[in-house]
Queue: 4 jobs
Job 1
Amino acid sequence: MASDGSNTSSSSSIIPDRKNIAQQRLRIIAGHLRKPDTDGGVEALGCSAQENRPGAATNKTTVPRRRQEVMKWNGWGYNDSRFFFNKKGLTELSGKRYRLSGLLMPHMSDWFTSTFGASLQHTSLATPTLDPSAVKPPFLNEAFMEDLKSTGLPFTTDPEDRVFRSHGHCLHEIFALREGKVGRVPDLVVWPNCHDDVVKIVDMACKHNVCLMPYGGGTSVSSALECPPEETRSIASLDTSQMNRILWIDEKNLTAHAEAGIVGQDLERLLGESGYCTGHEPDSMEFSSLGGWVATRASGMKKNVYGNIEDLLIHVKMVTPQGVVQKSCQVPRMSTGPDIHHFILGSEGTLGVITEVTIKIRPIPQHQKYGSVVFPNFEMGVACLREVARQRCAPASIRLMDNEQFKFGHALKPQVSSVFMSFLEGLKKFYITKVKGFDPEHICVATLLFEGDREKVLQHEKQVYGIAAKFGGLAAGEDNGHMGYMLTYVIAYLRDLGMDHFVIAESFETSVPWDRVLDVCRNVKERITRECKEKGVQFPAMSTCRVTQSYDSGACIYFYFAFNYRGLSNPVHVFEHVEHCARQEILANGGSLSHHHGVGKLRKAWLKETVSEVGLGMLKSVKDYVDPENIFGNRNLL
Amino acid sequence: MASKSLYSPMLKKRDDFEDMLEERRTSSDLKYAFKCYTPVLYKGMPPCKTTLLKSMVLHSDQLRYVVRQVSKDTGTAPVAVQEEASAILEEMAHRLQLGPVRFFAFTLTKAFKTLFRSICVNEEGLQRLQQVVQEHPVVLLPSHRSYMDFLLMSVILYTYDLPLPVIAAGMDFMGMKILGEMLRMSGAFFIRRSFGGDRLYWAVFSEYVKTMVRNGMAPMEFFLEGTRSRTCKSLTPKLGLLNIVMEPFLKGEVFDVSLVPVSISYERILEEALYARELLGVPKPKESTSGLFKARKVLSEDYGSIHVYFGQPVSVRSLAQGRVDRSQFTMQPRHIPSKPSEDTQSFVNDVAYRLVCAQEENMVLRPWVLLASLLLQGMALEELTQQAVWLRGLVREFGAFLHWPDDKPPSEVVSDSLSLHVGLVRVADGRVWLLLEGAAAEGPGPATPEERLLDVAVQVLSCASYRNQALHVFVRPALLATAVHSASSGKKEEVFHTFSFLRNMLANEFILCPGDFEEACQQLVRSGALQVSQQEVTAMDRGQPTLSFLMAMLDPFLQGYQVVCRYLCEEASEGLTEKQFVPAVRNFTVKLLLQGNLRYSEVLSSDLQKNALAALLRLGAVRRVNGGQQVTLKVDKLMVNSLEDTLGGKLPTQKCVLARL
């Protein structure tokens, strides 16, 4: 382990520009997040739980034990970053973290009011602080507490901490919090510092029959973190955020071994310092953790180059009530019966705690370039993506937004600083709509991200734009592409803005075969619109989608839907009904239950029809063997 | 089910009708024919060129797949098969153009104005249609009583600026040279009457229809009943086309498909006597243009009014909700043709029945329909008016769509109706007589008793065709009335069994659905004819007129079925072929009638005889045996005999037949 440090320094001296590229890239993707106060190299600390590390709270990493000090307790992301309408009615994003931070977005309020029939004057603000009396006092298992105290592991029963770990980011969860409503929450939160700590905690939980719920980044959108209300035992939330070190980097085999609690942005930043990256960038990467990715079968934006989490995973350690499960070697592939990794991938915290992961790494690419293409309509866009997939020449990322999202993206354009720029914008618009005859009501846009050597990128670009041209696509510049990806990171913040003005929104995803992409998009969008109308939503709902990933045989589709809930007596109920209908529509049209969000408790009613009765039985029998006492009792999946 | 309410008679608000001809009588027809026609379009898309449509069909995955299959199986070169497909499509495809429609609009309204007093269309229905054509692909499902139906539909849609439909028509129309092409240009496409085993034909045909539905190119129009009903009674629906138009929804290619039942009611049908002859075995004249001109005589007569009711659009999506698991269609590529699963088939079947019921419910009944029902039961003139008023009350009680001019005294309404149908009835000696055809025409009377009998039958069947228009109103209570009468006891269970037996027996004759029993009970309890408790069904004294009227209405059918059974038991030879069946039964019936052993000359109707046979085949009392070129009928005499006895009320229903059903 000691050699890690020298590895890092030697590699950075060999390829000096890698570090620069890394930093530049990080700026682009995630912005500077809490600038590291020290050098922040790869730490090779031993496990020192017994000392109850005083430094842990002021750890250099992003996530402190008391998350609420940095992150919103009832909304998305950082406390300092928030969208709001300023006095002039222009939209701003506070803080300094994002590319949009501090810029004025003049079109947003118009788009917002006209799309949702909302008014900036009508507000529905959240309860500012948590009322601790709303939280039931913890139900503690005394014997377990005694044992826990004797280990010296940090833990808390503070209501704020417990509430923070009682939810993910489903709309109904956030909506309740904004109203100050709190349901069943964990009775205590415990922070293990390393694998061995986890082993101890799991042992104690088994011994005293305490329910454990692993907690990584807390970005779940499947109700996976909700405490089952029927759970009568004491529930301990096991927060892995302090297990956040990269334990080693193996440059010969291009792998890195890290603790499971490390969040995406830290992993990329720390690897970047050595000139590497995993290339795994789910939209939640600022907050979601390595262990969480494995436990939910996550997918990253750039999977075309790097693969999804199951492709990246080399080795994983999971602590279960039966002991630790892991493979005996770190190999690229083996034929030893069903892959035990696939019991762990997507287990959603029902079998144990993922503690350490070996993941593939790659040198940071020399060059990165955004791009965009406008298509006359969505059908042409999909046809183009299909062709790109057929020719297997997809760039690191290629996404197609529909017309509604195209307009939405436009609404988020920051104020143009110079007259010249706005003139250019006008010219571009004139060219596309008047000269090329694209109908602004049907136009849609694909955003692209190329990675690799400068030359390869250029060549690749040429090929992709060539295909696009065959489907009527016009290159629309780097900026639009960049903006598109930006949107992904800020959209969750925007939901909070909407909720301040009676607009609720949610996203969900699915995967479908190519020949059904258009049908699923059309039918699901229409179903949402209709169900909203039927349920008494006054203003037409917004329902929009984009194709976010392409595969050889199909694609991943991401839907957003949002509506103005003024006048509804039970907006969450309406919302849940619509979401349910949308999922049924997806399944009826040949889509999957989930591409990467997972099942959790939100979608588990459909699991049986998805994997067949026998399939479900197989999963159940694994659970019965690994965790007969249901210590990992979050009741996801099954 | 959500859409059930659409059919509930209690909820129905009778819409206002507008006479389409009124404006035509006061303003220029030419101007009308050249009017600016700007229909609303599905999702605002401009209509698709017919050549583009054809190439879409020919290049579809579906067709290519079948072409490959056929080529592989027959050893023909794919190019040749593709060419064959192309020829099939050429023969089939419509060439909808506005010009010919304008021509028809011009000439037909001219004709309509002389033939009909009015053509009434429900405005609200048109508005609903206007709304729905913009949102979903629409399928128009008119009832089919006359050749006029589809031209009438097109003219109406043209008049009200609605998109012109594309109509599935039988190939026989194509025989009319010029007219066939004219029809093609006004939106008809032609399908062969039977192409059971021809995969390629089926593929071209179904893909052609689906392409139009999928892209919402034009409202698709076809007749659920498959052919004109010669009896004016709804025919049991054919499922082929309905299956096809629903497929794009079931396979997720469109969000929804709207089915719009349309009820076209004629006060007097142009083909009335023609149908009667046809039913009696005088073959129908082959459709030909010159034949149509010969029919000019009809132009000088008064045919009363037409009512066209555009029903509530029915969403296939809402019908399928909870009935069909659409994900079953996701397990194989959609272009590979596959037989629909059993649950899908039963779903389509139910939908078809529902739609026919919806057509029936919105049929407008004229006073004459009531008079015909009474006349067939034998009635004196002074009694007639009184009885008609009584029946009017009953019909309304049962929720029928009766168009009775309430502002006139009933006697005037009755005499008006009788005068419109001078060809059928005559008033003499204070009685109303059915007119014998021979007496109507000049010249010597018919020679033989058989010919005389047939002449009477023509008149009776014509008259019956009007009564039949009201059958859907009466058939459920009539079944119940008969069941109460012939059940061995007043136990509700017993009555239900008898009812079920009759319903099952007559399922090919009438449009019947499960749940009829309860509905019939409610109707008869409301009208005071029955008392129904948990256990018992009792006939009320004051309900006797109602009950006996209803039973008398059903009696000809029951007798007819018995005659068929009797024929099969007593006279049918071993090698009876299906072709011989109808003439043989007819001869048998004529004999019975002449002997005075049968009262109803209606039994001579080949429609009834065929339905009876279909029922027996369905019940397994008769089997089809494929013997070389001919299909022979194998009769299970024991079973047919016991069915006959049960129909005649000689056997309790439970023991004999139901046990076997």
Job 2
Amino acid sequence: MLSYVLDRLKSSILVLFVVSIITFFVLMIIPGNPAQLILGTDATPEAIAELSSAMGLDKPLYQRYLSWLLDLFKLDMGKSYVYGESVTTLIGRSIPVTFSISIFAMAMAVFIAFLFGMLSAIKKNSIIDYFSRSLMQLGTAIPSFWIGMVLIVYFGVRLKVLPVSGFVPIDRGFADFMKSIFLPSLVLAIGEVGTLLRIVRSSMLDSLKQDYMDMARVKGLSAGTIYIKYALRGALTAPLTIIGMQLAKLAGGTTVVETIFALPGLGRLVLTAVEHRDIVLLQGLVMFITSTVVIVTLIVDILVMFLNPRIKSFHRGE
Amino acid sequence: MKKNISLILGIILVFIIIGIWVLSFVHMPYNPNEMNISNRFLRPGFDSDYILGTDNFGRDILSRIMYGSRNVLLVALVSVTLGSLVGIFLGALAAILKGLTEKIIMRIMDGLMAFPGILLAMMLVAVLERGIKGSIAAISIFMVPVFSRLVYSMILDTENLLYIKAAKSYGSSKGQIFFKHYIPAMLPRLVTQFSSSMGSAVMIETSLSFLGLGIQPPFASWGLMLSEARQFFLVYPYLAVAPGIAIIITVLGFNLMGDGLNDILISRRSNDE
């Protein structure tokens, strides 16, 4: 069991190493001198040369990569030229926004997906099954920016019950905080629920076909015991893995929703960095986001292994 | 019987979009980029000259939707084709050559998969130019690991089957085995994946355009139309209706087609998924 954990840890570190190489070298292709970008077009050549050497831009590429990597370990990601603040500070300030909406969104998606996924597997080909299957398809096909706009018109403007933009930190009142994250989280949840529902339904159908289900029925156990204790438990592995992947994806992939609802999260930082070609900021963000993805995936994989020790031998064959 | 509903519905939706795309070369009611300030914000209606209404510059929304279908389909088709070809090539290379090649290729693919959602595409757009070429390059690279991992695992699954071993034993070259045996065996899954990837490519393209990183104004693209509608849709909600429905029809069409193909092409234990 320990060897599996170590194995996964090793490959996670390797993935992050590859990501750091991709990120550093891809962003080096950006045309133009970063020093020139910071100082503007009317800077003297001397000033540009001075800043370039201060930023280490005159050193060979591999040396710059190594020193960037070393700084990353010290959580020093450099200074954003758009904001004029350290990247670490900027990320630290945005984390609460993005993580709140991601976690709340996943909680909603998990609730809906398990409720409808189980019901539709138990009552296959019933009305509720058709409804769930339509939800699966529509959930993945509706663009989040569109459903976001629709919800803003309906809840924010017609009913005037929810704020349509901005973020209220949790220390300024829990109710206001929840109100400010409800719509963005709902939009994210709609985007994720389709995939999750599909997995819950098919794992549940698989699980219902197992021999131990017949055994449970023969023993005359109540429906609740049969479905929750036996069928659901047998059907947890695949959904858990997907939940982990989705949570990781949301932590870094909420740019569109943050843009619609004007939330100052990580996604907005990414967009600003891309728009202004703020390489230092973008490098830091990409490394932070991918690390989050890799760590969350690792934790979920280990959790799943504890739930289902068969995974261990399966993974080894990979 | 039931399993074919997805396929039929998917094909119908895809045909609707392809029909609109073909029609955009034959006839559009108005010039999609022609501004006419006196006709701005005309509401949609069948008795109106502008069936889907006009936008903030007085441009005909129907013509812009039709014109936008060209960009969306072009970007999606070219980038999924490019991405799948490169992905298939790299995946096959890794699975057939093994050794160091396999390790390097598959680690790079793992690295690319660690970029969540549209982050990779956004990062690539920062490096490349904004517009059609940038979107195509970004989405192609996004598709590469999807296809290479699929091909890689499929080859590993089939390489020990008897007919592959037989082919090896009478001296077929690696290339011959790949084209004569692996490709036909993988085709159903590749076709299915291609269709679903078209759906995700459309979604990424429209997201990039919505964020202002894709096709640039004044050209029409569905994502861009929604982004432009943002300033006005509180007063004129109809602005957001047509582009939204166009995107949903396209993505839903390709996804359903992928699911339907999956059901008929790939024999499975059940049609539950």
Job 3
Amino acid sequence: MTFAFYLFSCIAILATAMVVTSRHPVHGLLYLVVSFLAVASVFYVLGAPFIALLEVIVYAGAIMVLFVFMIMMLNLGPNVASEESQFLRPSVWVGPSLLCLVLFVEMIYVVVSGEPSATAAASEIDPKQVGVALIGKYYLAVEFASMLLLAGIVAAYHLGKRSLPDETTEEAIQ
Amino acid sequence: MIDAYWPILMIVFVLAVVMTIAPGMIWLERRMLALWQDRYGPNRVGPFGLLQVAADAIKMIFKEDWIPPFADKATFILAPCIINATTLLAFAVIPFGPGWHISDLSVGLLFFLAMSSLGVYSVTLAGWASNNKYSLLGGLRAAGQMLAYEVFMGLSLMGVVMMAGSFRISDIVEAQQNVWFCIPQFLGFFLFFTAGVAETHRLPFDLPEAEAELIAGFHAEYSSLKFGMFFIGEYIGITLISALVVLLYFGGWHGPWFHPVVWFLLKVFFFLVIFIWMRASFARPRYDQLIAFGWKLMFPLALLNLMVTGAVVLAMR
């Protein structure tokens, strides 16, 4: 299982790196899907099959399909790839890379110093335990999340609503 | 001895059954459609035309495998693989009888939902990678349709999960010993079956490949075995949905006299014929009608089913 954990972690890191460096928007998105799948596998190896599959259903399945859908609608093609090739100039990526390097050194330090880190759960966490934790211990957080999502839905509804006929004619005149 | 090799035996068994049913469906569909339309259908190659599938396969393998120069090559090749991989992987959690499964995952039902949501990429990417207006329209339609139908597909299944108290498919089947879930969960069955038809984009939900308007939609640019993979993938998908309908709502392998596996396969066969029958009888709706139907009728119904089932399960305790 340890081998599987490191294998999936490496795939996740490589795929995420490819998301950043890939010039083609759709190819980048596909790497992001691979990254999500790898992260889901890591969850599974750590003994959380429920969360692993939710990750695949929600992120890899639903949200990424929306992204692909939007990019297909915008019809971004080879000309975008050539535009993006100019994005990655050294002046742009040196700063973030330094910050990431600091984080990386910190992570290495934590690993080497032998501090207790996340280890695989002794037993598999089944859906019931997740449900009990969500509705019991983390009830307030769930409520906050649902309020946030409701606000998002209302906002999306407002933005997507067809404007009234008199408003459109006003816009047309202007 | 046999215990150690049982999982491998099961993998071979499931693959053999699925890969026999899927091409068999092509022959069955053509014969049944012909029957309902007062024609003969393929009846020349082999007994009752059974070898027609073999002839078609030979034809497909020896055709030129053409990749259009304007296509996005890597994605173009990847797309038909995805649908076959995801639908076949989903069969890993399908029990054919008590103990006749590859993996009895504790979250088996979610695994199926995950695989079916990944299968969408196949159609969407095929439409996009072909770099063809009609294909792109087909891919866009597929993505929109899947988003609309996947939401209530998951929700409609939760009624069954609540009644059985488990995501494990064999537990759900065992919970139907006395009464099949198609009776208390009739609405759930109707919703899931509709979503399943949309998921496999069969008539009346075959808008991604509507041949009257989009030529062949997402697979218009595909030829040879790549087209064959889409074709077979669609039939594996139909088999998968039929198997799940049987397992979740029609008592799975429960039945008198025969071996459980026989019962399971018989019930699956019944739903396969229903799929073909629907193709013969329904007309294709307009795209906006399809999306409105999904979001405005089926989705609220799924929520209603969820809440009523939850209330009843709580009250029965």
Job 4
Amino acid sequence: MQEMQEETSQPDPDAAAIEATHRAYWRANLRLMGWLLAVWFIVSYGFGILLVEPLNEIRVGGFKLGFWFAQQGSIYVFVVLIFLYAWKMNRIDRKFDVDES
Amino acid sequence: MDLQTWTYLIVGLTFALYIAIAIGSRVKTTRGFYVAGGHVSPLANGLATAADWMSAASFISMAGIISFSGHDGAYYLMGWTGGYVLLALLLAPYLRKFGQYTVPDFVGQRYYSKQARLVAVVCAIFVSFTYVAGQMRGVGVVFSRFLDVEIGLGVLIGMGIVFLYAVMGGMKGITYTQVAQYCVLIFAFLVPAIFISMSMTGEVFPQVGFGSTVLDGSGRDTGVYLLDKLDGLHRELGFAAYTNGKKETIDVFFITAALMVGTAGLPHVIIRFFTVPRVRDARLSAGYALLFIALLYTTAPAVAAFARTNLIETVEGQPYASMPEWFHNWENTGLLAWVDKNGDGLIQYAPGGAFGKMPGDKSLKLVRDPERGGLGEPRYANPKADGPNELYVDRDIIVLANPEIARLPNWVIALVAAGGLAAALSTAAGLLLVISASISHDLLKNILMPGITEKQELLYARMAAGVAVCIAGYFGVNPPGFVAQVVAFAFGLAAASFFPAIVLGIFSKRMNREGAVAGMVVGIVFTAAYIIYFKFVNPEANSSAHWLFGISPEGIGTVGMLLNFAVALSISRLTPPPPESVQRLVETIRVPR
């Protein structure tokens, strides 16, 4: 609430534009985070814990799939998620012109 | 060269390296001491974070824990890696932008309150001390097993090394020794694992060998998958299948969550992200850190399965007289013991214990008889346990004896000793810095003696680090009996206190002092009370029948975290919003530039 009042009391168009950009930047960040955390949850808590038994019916080479996700696969996905986040965020930073020089 | 000489040589070389780095990275400013001047590259920070994070327990005990619990070991694997995703997405970049020195710094400024800072300081010190005692103990144990040095002397040597680089070089010295320590520990872990994978499955990568078919003694493919073979062996001996879970799903879910969130909330991990120059470096170095951690964490379960198969095949149903040399070596350390219950001279391995506790002991400790049995085997004063099992195996043997079981050369075995020491020392140093900064920066400079100059603060920081090394060393030599029990505390408390306070501080502009303090207090009190009740007050009741919703004390930190979030969010809506300046601070940390 307070935020809104502040905005109306500040007539400076540049400040308002910057604030709007920052808000859009934050939304883009939250959207990306939401997707990545959903994948994070599905591979670990989903495949590795809650669905481990049905997935264990599927075999890939010598692994039961649920067991593989619990002891190997989820970790690989975690690594990919962080690098993906770092790469995507660099692009989002540049797009909204908030990147560090 | 014999094993002893190799071990002295390799451990000596690594120690000389750490000392050289310590001398090369002395610091003169508090910024240098607390955050290495903020000049650490993302790659170096990733390496240092990985060493900081992987403790004596990760290196020595984790593969063994998995080896004896099979599928259920997964919650350690997922819990101790998945936390980095939370760290990278929810905490690291914003705390880097905030750009102070400690976690209580953030809590204190974001919640404009010395009380909040004090709560954070107490938690940081408590969490770090519980952790560091175990590391010092680990140093002593490695020394005593590999170098025949008294545990006490081993701890003292470890203290001396850490003292040198932590007190002189602060975060800068710690960072660059951790980089070296990571290289030592990962090499020491991977070399035996790769050898064993090649000899058992013909695959170079243990992660692939884990899911491949096993070779027979002459190197021909048997066409049987390793994990199927292991499940088969387990069935024959009456164990539950290796690849099936035994714990309740709800408990596994909550333990995994507590470990993940606790990992993300541990101060010694968080402060590593203050050392990189930019926000984008913080994100990238979290990726590097997890990549380097994953190298060990995806190898460990493979080692666990190889070692378990190897162990069962070598001992089960075999005559004691035909046991190889390593068996006797490890009998001498007390990590392996055999009692011939049925007098047939063969080793029977089955579920259940081999020995009972000595009268008056709380946990199983083997007591050697001076006399040996008819086959030359050591005998023990302990009563025999009921059931057919005749073999006692300590889980640490899986990593420590692995190279010998696989008949690897002596230098590889010596390497394992150096790796265990590197893992323990690197984690100890990171924790000591948290304790030192909490005292000199948060307690003295920001609460008790705000007038001190930077020079004085730096002196206090060095003194605090020195005192903390001594206290940690004392606990390493005289471990309090409750150390094993309080490890659950470290993660539970980090999960129930720091994590929600920091996340809300970044993601909720409306979060205020009243909400954050109430949330932290409720989270801590609830989690601590639950753990203390089941671990100390009424340990007999520590079983799923009495647990809240079937959640064990190890997993209760997750509930504490949820309570913290709920209390903080509701109280903050009933109390005045934070001041304008704090709301602007939140806006600033959300944007990299």
